[in-house]
Amino acid sequence: MKHTFGGLWTQEKLQVLEKYLQFYATALKNQPFTLHYVDAFAGTGSHDPKVKSSQGEIIPHEDFQGSVTTALNIEPGFHHYHFNDLNPDHIRELRALKVNYPNKNIHITEKDANSFVPEFCAALGKKDRAALFLDPYSTQLNWATLKYISATQKIDLWLLFPISAITRMTPKDGAKIRPEWRKTITRLLGTDKWEQALYRPKSLPPMDDLFGDQSNHDGTERLNVDELEVWVTKRLRETFHYVAKPHRLTNNNRLLFLFYLAVSNPKQQAWRLADRAAQSILKKH
Hints:
Elements: E1 4-5, H1 9-27, E2 34-39, E3 48-51, H2 67-72, E4 80-84, H3 88-98, E5 106-109, H4 113-123, E6 128-134, H5 143-152, E7 155-161, H6 163-169, H7 182-189, H8 194-198, E8 199-201, H9 206-211, E9 220-222, H10 225-239, E10 242-243, E11 247-251, E12 254-263, H11 268-283
Helix pairs in contact: 1-11, 4-5
């Protein structure tokens, strides 16, 4: 079973991840830590570079994960690898893949990522450190899960944030927000105040303002995508001690994802080191 991917942004994402994992494992190899790599939406571990004709309702379909084999091939490696997925077919593929890496300590779990991640975080000991990759297939990730990660103070997180899902669920005209999506948006953004934050009164064209005709300009309009990116970044920086400027992943000049590095370690020495690595890697992309 192979996964088909949604676009070239997937290869770009994996290149960034690979370079950071290489930096991370090398930087900590002589430290007295047990290093964990964690993939909460692991998929099958392989990919098939084709574009699916059918796309999901919220974001383009991207159900393959090459991140598993990317991480397993990093040298020096991690002490433990944790691959989680809720799809039974993916779990079977991961278990088959495990046979190819007999010298790696691979742990495979079949749980909802929003349960798996808090459980993993709670099990971390004093000498544990982890690099965690969160690449949800669509809108599965809860913002509350990010808070568990931050609270550990032991995890470097790479997060693929589905900005296109937010823009599709928050139409430009505030009056057109679908009621059934409100709970999902609140869960994704971690606040029920998102509407006040993302929407503003509609602006009047100069001629309407001059003649006082406001009949067609009542209501609210959503922030543009650049402003939305600033708001999401601000939210993450309220949660983590360090968050790098996101790397934009696009398709046909349309912004699909924001790829974030977030560091839970409160020590400036740790996140400054992560910052230098991230800036160097992202500059090349």
